[in-house]
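Kindly inspect both lines:
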Amino acid sequence: MASEKRVLVTGANGFIGSWLVRALLAKGYSISASVQPGSPTAHLRALPGGADPKRLAFYEADLLDAAGLEVAAEGCRAGVFHVASPCSLEDPTDPEKELIRPAVEGTVNVLEAARKAGARRVVLMSSISAMIPNPGWGKAHPGRAFDEDSWTDLDYCKANKKWYAVSKTIAEKEAWKYAEKYGLDIVAINPSTCLGPLLQPGLNASTAVLQQLLQGSKNDQGDYWLGCVHVRDVADAQIMLLEKPNASGRHLCTNGIYQFKDFAETVAKVCPGHNVTRFEEETQPGLVPRKDAARKLIDLGMVFTPIEDTIKEAEESMIEKGLLRGPSSNAN
């Protein structure tokens, strides 16, 4: 495959990264895949085209390994997808070491590697966690749904120990500073809670939101919820952002903005036989709903998978992988 079609994908064997690799292979790209040292890659090699080292080459490189990332990025002039970012199912004991430094310094390392490789564009995987929580949004923008102008309130997050949001927000801001300083072409994607079938062997943080809800959790996701999106759509949107010359700036990627309460009701209907909590009160008081919240992506041609399909496919995948018990006839 010609170097014009080679791209780098960081975090290639994670939940989103795996789907991105699958979509890129299907579109004829060759991929340099950077992964955490010692992490599993067999599920990527099993993809159509994944067993061909000319199509899919692996590089073990920690986000703080600047030299390793530069090696991985060599020849990736078609673009770089920076997907990797530390995220744990457990609260960090050392947020600076476990989340913030790898996310922020790692992003700069990847951008530096992309610039040195002559990459045409970098697609940065950010998050709604770089957009919310933003408690002051409603007062500053009455009646306006959250959009790409919203940035997470770092002081609020630090005071409430929401360290993942801190890491993603600082990392994205550093990316935009880098782009301005060096003239690097960067576009960002900010997905909401990402669901769908798992290609990787283990459970990831976003899928755990649905798993726990199906198991009876009463967590209403508080400050973290804007909606959900199919992981396949996130992968497709990233490729669209690489390929569309007119794409620029940030892109909220969600199949609508709505309350977690409404999501739980949909889950209960789509996945009967589980002990799904029904929330009586608003879970995100004052949240302004918007069906076409991802208007920037929609205008580029994005068509989102129905939420019901997204939920059902995620449930079936978790059951198949032994991460969730099947439905029971006596569940609420």
